[in-house]
Amino acid sequence: MDDGTEGHSTIWSRLCRLFGHDNQESLEKAIVEAREDGEVEPDEESMLLGILRFDGLQVQDTMTPRTDIDCVSDDIPLKEVARVIVRSGHSRIPVFKETRDNIVGILHAKDVLSSLLDHEGDAPSVASVMREPFFVPETKSIRTLLQEFRASKQHIAIALDEYGGTSGLITIEDVLEEIVGDIEDEHDAPREEDIRSVGEGVYELTGRAMLEDLKELGINLNSDEVDTIGGYLSMEAGHVPEKDEQFTLQGWIFTVLEADRKLIQKLRMEPADHETLLPEEAAAGA
Ligand code: ADP
Asked: Which ligand 1 atom minimizes the distance to the CA of 187?
């Protein structure tokens, strides 16, 4: 089976030769140094590092998770699907039967539009317009997926977990972004920043802020099971924490600001020894 190793080794050995290094770590260091010395531009540096790290990435590392998939049930009218396309801004909408774990097709915006125009009075069913989904295991390497996307001329796949349930959705854009960074298209809604400084030492986080990114603030929360702060606190609590629940971890207080039954949406993070003085109180020496 062609897993792309051959093409990879060519790029790999070319980069190694170019920078005169023979293992990934020293090659990464050499690229960073080359940028520091002005031999490589910052965007070239991030692309080169993206290519090096690309190899270790799996579908689950870059997919849109199951809970964020905009999808429709197979029994809704096609006109409703058009509304979902407009509202979500996505041009391909997965179709499920009974539960999200059972994706049975993908609706493409242009197929939906032409069907609605061709059959003004009695639009055809979702099932007659949808296309076969392309399923991949969530553990597939994105390098292999990229080749499969190109060979099959597909641009979207549904990722499955080990039990055959839906784990997420991945498009060619997600894969390419690992090399070239965020690609904003004209329909992308601006995404709320996951970590936002709101005062000295105080941060507002979304539940999906990555544990990895919190390391930059000196907070080392490690877990094999979860990647996000929302997931971490739910795991600590043994339930999805409610609004106003607090956690003290590594000298920081995490306060839940917004949550629903399934997810923490927003939280505040501040140092445990933080004196919460209003600026006027501080100025008055309170
Ligand atoms: P589109 O332009 O239709 O959104 P892209 O391939 O440009 O499709 O994907 C942009 C981002 O949107 C990717 O992160 C992808 O995972 C995500 N995405 C695409 N389709 C959906 C969908 N139906 N529901 C949720 N996210 C989606």
From this structure: 2
3-state secondary structure (DSSP) of residue 105: strand
Q: How far apart are CA 114 and CA 91, in angstroms?
A: 14
Task: Give the Cα separation of 169 and 59 in Å (integer).
Answer: 9
Going from the C-alpha of 175 to that of each of 1, 77, 264, the distances in angstroms are: 21, 32, 27
Q: Ligand 1 atom closest to Cα of 155?
A: 6
Residue 7 has pLDDT above 60, yes or no: no
Band of pLDDT at residue 17, cut at 50, 70 and 90: low
Name the 3-class secondary structure at 36.
helix
Residue nearest to atom 7 of ligand 1 (CA): 173
- Strand bridging mode 202-206 / 135-137: unpaired
Residues 233, 264 contacting (CB under 8 angstroms): yes
User: Which residues are within 8 A (CB) of 209 and not within 5 positions of it... i.e. 6 or more apart?
Assistant: 194, 195, 228, 229, 230
Distance CA 265, CA 167 (A): 20
As a dihedral over the C-alpha atoms of residue 242, residue 65, residue 60, residue 196, rounded to 10 degrees, the angle is: -60
Nearest atom in ligand 1 to the alpha carbon of residue 109 is 3
**Short-list 249, 246, 183, 178, CA closest to 217:** 249
Task: Give the pLDDT confidence score for residue 284 in this predicted structure.
Answer: 41
Q: Rounded CA gap, 278 and 202, in Å?
A: 13
Residue 126's CB is within 10 A of a number of other CB atoms, namely 23
pLDDT at 261: 79
Mean pLDDT (whole number) for 45-73: 89
**Residues above pLDDT 90, as percent of the chain:** 53
In eight-state DSSP terms, residue 131 is: B
**Ligand 1: does its nearest atom lie under 6 Å from the Cβ of 64?**
yes
Structure token pair of residue 213: 């990114």
3-state secondary structure of 99: strand
